[in-house]
Amino acid sequence: MTDPIADFLTRIRNAIIARKAKVEVPASKIKAKIAGILEQEGYIAGFTITTEGPQGTIVVNLRYDGQHRAAIEGLRRVSRPGQRTYVAKDSIPKIRSGLGVAILTTSKGIMTDREARKQGVGGEVICEVW
Question: Domains (ranges, CATH) in the chain?
């Protein structure tokens, strides 16, 4: 697999379309950080990391409202292995006029667009969530 982050996002997207309560993905440190940001921002109900198997798995609990609508309306991979997308601190994008969140990897770690603006750092835009 050439892009495990895109696979992670696609599994979440497919689970939302299929109205699943949770989804299992192979574990990695960057996926765990992205899942932590999604939980912090309120897009998922939570996640757990298990160490079974050679790599371990991340179980993501998806979040729905009373009408069974998912908290995540859309996910988009921005920076891909074939076309990396870097932004300076002054040109960090606002997703859906601030209603969504962009996840960036910076020299100070993986963070949201708001945190990157507050700390004054740019970096690689991993994905957008709204």
Answer: 4-62 (3.30.1370.30), 75-129 (3.30.1490.10)
- State the average pLDDT over residues 15-36: 97
Pairing of strands 75-77, 123-129: antiparallel
pLDDT digits (tens, 9 = 90+) for 98-122: 999 999 999 999 999 999 999 999 9
d(CA 125, CA 34): 12
pTM of the model: 0.93
Q: How much is the pLDDT for 53?
A: 84
> Cβ contacts of residue 43 below 8 Å, gap of 6+?
63, 71, 72, 101, 129
Residue 59 CA to residue 40 CA, distance in Å, equals 16
The C-alpha atoms of residue 25 and residue 50 are separated, in whole angstroms, by: 10
